[in-house]
Amino acid sequence: MTDTVAIVTGRRARRPPARVTRRRWLPYAYLAPALLLYGLFLLVPLGRAAQFSLYEWDGLGASTFVGLDNYAAVFQSAQLREAFAHALVLIVFFAVLPLALGLVLAALLTRARVRGLGFFRTIVFLPQVIAMVVIAVTWRQIYAPEGPLNTALRAIGLDSLARAWLGDYDWALPAVGLIGTWVSTGLVTVLLMAGMARIPREQYEAARLDGAGAVREFLAITLPSVRGEITVALTLTIVAALKTFDLVYVTTSGGPGTSTTVPSYEVYRLAFTIGEVGAAAAVGIVLTVIVFLINAVVNVIGERR
Amino acid sequence: MTVSRFETAANYVILIGFALVILAPIGVIVTLALGPERFSSGGGLHFENFARAWEVGRFGQYMATSVSVAAIVVVVAVTASILAGYALGAMTFRGATAFFYLFLLGIMVPTEAFIVPMFFDMRSLGLTNTIWGVALPQIAMSIAFGTFWMRTYFRGASRELIEAARLDGAGSWRILWQILVPIGRPAILTLVLLTFMWTWNEFLIPLVMSPNGTVRTAPLGLAFFQGQYTQGTALLAAGAILVALPVVVLYVILQRHFIKGMIEGAVK
């Protein structure tokens, strides 16, 4: 059928005919359940969020159309600007630091013949499968004033460093960030190891013959070969950093003051605590745009040769 | 290739050091969970903390909710994903590429972007504080990833096998369930595991969708337990372990699939 049409119209069919079926409506029937659920419970709410963001509404009474005022508020409100700045700091802890650590670890581990790599891989992924709430509860205990971290610091004579980590205006954000480093480093390392395992050994041998040292070898062979893995790792961890909600909710609730608040926490607070539904939707949309932009930038850089 | 002894030794040091950093917090929570509830109650291992936490923290009830939500999300999302992935991966039709990108969008969109209108619209439909209010948004999110995942599998499935089955007179439905699904078990199993894990660990959706706490899942139970129960850390730690355990046990048993899934599904 398709061929006849192509001959009659003088155009060549662009694609091969259906492999599984010739009935035209069938693919749509298979697609329908997924499309319906996905459309109704993700795409429609997403569109509604864009709509909500143009109104001022307390969630109960009448709503007022305010145009882009909610977006202007995102950039004018000190607390919201601060939340986005904190998200950038968290990117350092969730993505940049794990990438640096992961590169070193993966490079060492791939080149070496060591026993127990399987066990190591299993261990390193554990933080990825444990619920963030559990991780947050655990680290709260570790950071507690009388917790293991301070006990350890006092034991080695660093009493002056001991403090209520999550209650400290300067230290709370890095303390939360380090939990992210703990969670992400394993994922990044294993991703990079998978990439590095594919590099042919001969390349390294050739480099060694040319007299390249370990550092040169790493910069000239290893690093360029894992560009793709770096891209994936950065995309994943940056998005994780930007979406941190449960970690902040359980460890600090954004405090002390507003020193650890993040955009996702602001979405929750604005909509469900103080009843600024439109503003909350606007923050959500801005966050989404940022996630998309960062994804795009990372991917463009990752694919450029 | 020879690697110097020094290098090997250094590698072990790094490997062990890193493993310790990963394991230390887990060790802390296990130690706390097995410790005395109050300092006065003496030494030894206190396994009764788990039973006490189960009761005091009402984890029995929360786990049951989590199991129900996870079962609904996994069954519905995986089935819908298999069907949609089959259409996108093994059939040619107008708009296939556009549909693919539409699903891809859902993988990247953060929950925060749609949770606010979702709550208010679900409330007007009377679905908040019901199991469906908690499950449906997660079904939608899982379908985005699942369709992408299954499409990749069906694209790679053998053409010859499909052609042969078709010549034998099998329709598309039979080709899917009697040929492709059975040989695609590893891919489907990985999808089931990841969907289960993400659903079990989800926090924001159950928090928002059940404001009065009738459909409280285990992670939320833990967060509220921490808020209310401040006398001792032993029960809280025991509760934390109870919440993490189902996924961790599954992970340890099926870690090959999990790691493969985490690396290949790294798009999420």
UniProtKB/TrEMBL annotation, chain A:
Key words, A-Z: Cell membrane, Membrane, Transmembrane, Transmembrane helix, Transport
Protein name (database record): Sugar ABC transporter permease
Membrane topology label: Multi-pass membrane protein
Organism this protein belongs to: Microbacterium oryzae
GO CC terms in record: plasma membrane
InterPro entries: ABC_transporter_permease (IPR051393), MetI-like (IPR000515), MetI-like_sf (IPR035906)
Family: Belongs to the binding-protein-dependent transport system permease family.
Domain ABC transmembrane type-1 residue range list: 84-298
From TrEMBL, chain B:
One record GO biological process: transmembrane transport
Source organism, top-level taxon: Bacteria
Keyword tags: Cell membrane, Membrane, Transmembrane, Transmembrane helix, Transport
Major place of residence: membrane
Subcellular locations according to the entry: Cell membrane
SUPFAM superfamilies registered for this protein in UniProt: MetI-like
Membrane topology category: Multi-pass membrane protein
PROSITE patterns: ABC_TM1
GO cellular component: plasma membrane
Domain ABC transmembrane type-1 intervals: 63-254
Transmembrane segments: 12-34, 62-86, 98-120, 132-154, 175-200, 234-254
Family statement drawn from the similarity comment of this UniProt entry: Belongs to the binding-protein-dependent transport system permease family.
The protein's name: Carbohydrate ABC transporter permease
Species of origin: Microbacterium oryzae
